[in-house]
Amino acid sequence: MQSITILGATGSIGVSTLDVIARHPDRYTVYALSAHSRVDELAAQCRQFQPKVAVVGSADAADQLAALLRAMNLDTQVAWGEQALCDIASAGEVDGVMAAIVGAAGLAPTLAAARAGKKVMLANKEALVMSGQLFMDAVAASGATLLPIDSEHNAIFQCLPADYRRVPAAAGVTKILLTASGGPFLKRAVETLDTVTPAEACKHPKWVMGPKISVDSATMMNKGLEVIEAHWLFGAPAAQIEVVIHPQSVIHSMVSYADGSVIAELGNPDMRTPIANALAYPERIASGVAQLDLTQVGTLQFEKPDFKRFPCLALAYDALQAGGTAPALLNAANEVAVQAFLDERIGFRQIDRVIAGVMDALPHGPASSIEAVMAQDAAARAAAERAIAALGHPLKAANA
Ligand SMILES: NC(=O)c1ccc[n+]([C@@H]2O[C@H](COP(=O)([O-])OP(=O)(O)OC[C@H]3O[C@@H](n4cnc5c(N)ncnc54)[C@H](OP(=O)(O)O)[C@@H]3O)[C@@H](O)[C@H]2O)c1
């Protein structure tokens, strides 16, 4: 029986994780669940899974949750804040941690799980993008098991030899091919992108996801963050990580080998597959995902990404090449710009302009400590907010 903490239980990945866990009560118990502010959803999850601890983002939310749990006669302990998240990620009773908080807020608890030597199931790509080498060092020092949840990285993980040690040449790996659906704006006329709405940007053609990653998919920053994530997970330089547009999202990624072989992982686009893969690794368990019928899919298409249409992808490659704290700057500026777009304070095409402006304006330095990374994160957030305040929304400006 494995005892699991889910960080970000009320989100898209959290809900899918609980769906898989509910199918296997003989294998998994839930030690702790966390949410930020969606207290009602978390209370309902507590009723079903009866965790020992539930963590939320504020004292008010904790009071509300405690009242709901009392009314349900549940003895789940309620806590709030970052230290409480770190505690449920590193508690002695915990075997595995699903790291599914969105954004930089997930860094501290995900790192706490890594430092405590847990099985870390990593959905929160932003944590690895920000802290890169520091995170991988923590995993190595504690002997934690790091399992990727992003469907692309989970696919690559499955396509690599079981004893892969983050050295591509030693395993005959020549390239990592990250597939990308291209998002909702793959074919939309570029000159109309200034006026797309948050609802349009969040309507992903293949995946159902939270709002931030949905906008990241529309700008392809998501793929850019994944390039950086792949670099750290698999030890490949930027030049060996190639993005391939594959609109059907049936192939979740591929690995090219020196002998000309290309190994791919295929399946229906449903995050329960990589989640089940990580929960049960190295075994295989049912996930609830329907078996892939290739005769129904019919055609698989591939094309090169257009870096002019998707400047965020180029910005991410630049940040990876620059190294140090550059990916943390990129990530922070992106989080602020995406939130501003979702709040309708800037237009879609201004997201990449805000990020590029921050990357140009702020010098990056060595990522020598988590404190150095967090200082750059804070500086980039402030610079991005200043840039957003100066820009204004293109539609609102036109209508003024
Ligand atoms: N969704 C996917 O298919 C998918 C695929 C690959 C990778 N990922 C990655 O997985 C992570 C989660 O994505 P998602 O789509 O599941 O996001 P989501 O649906 O927006 O859920 C985010 C979760 O994090 C919590 N949260 C939000 N802000 C927080 C904060 N400041 N402090 C603590 N908790 C906070 C939310 O709580 P509330 O509900 O209370 O707001 C929710 O439980 C992201 O890093 C994303 O890139 C997602």
From TrEMBL:
Purpose: Catalyzes the NADPH-dependent rearrangement and reduction of 1-deoxy-D-xylulose-5-phosphate (DXP) to 2-C-methyl-D-erythritol 4-phosphate (MEP).
Gene: dxr
Keyword Cytoplasm: no
Segments forming domain 1-deoxy-D-xylulose 5-phosphate reductoisomerase C-terminal: 146-234
Protein name: 1-deoxy-D-xylulose 5-phosphate reductoisomerase
Annotated residues for binding of NADPH: T10, G11, S12, I13, N124, E126, G210
Residues bound to 1-deoxy-D-xylulose 5-phosphate: K125, S151, E152, S181, H204, S217, N222, K223, E226
UniProt xrefs under InterPro entries: DXP_reductoisomerase, DXP_reductoisomerase_C, DXP_reductoisomerase_N, DXPR_C, DXPR_C_sf, NAD(P)-bd_dom_sf
SUPFAM superfamilies: 1-deoxy-D-xylulose-5-phosphate reductoisomerase, C-terminal domain, Glyceraldehyde-3-phosphate dehydrogenase-like, C-terminal domain, NAD(P)-binding Rossmann-fold domains
Reactions this protein catalyses: 2-C-methyl-D-erythritol 4-phosphate + NADP(+) = 1-deoxy-D-xylulose 5-phosphate + NADPH + H(+)
Family: Belongs to the DXR family.
An annotated Gene Ontology molecular function: 1-deoxy-D-xylulose-5-phosphate reductoisomerase activity
Short name of one Pfam family: DXP_redisom_C
Domain 1-deoxy-D-xylulose 5-phosphate reductoisomerase N-terminal per the UniProt entry, residue ranges: 4-132
Residues that hold Mn(2+) according to the record: D150, E152, E226
HAMAP family: DXP_reductoisom
Pathway: Isoprenoid biosynthesis; isopentenyl diphosphate biosynthesis via DXP pathway; isopentenyl diphosphate from 1-deoxy-D-xylulose 5-phosphate: step 1/6
EC class (word): oxidoreductase
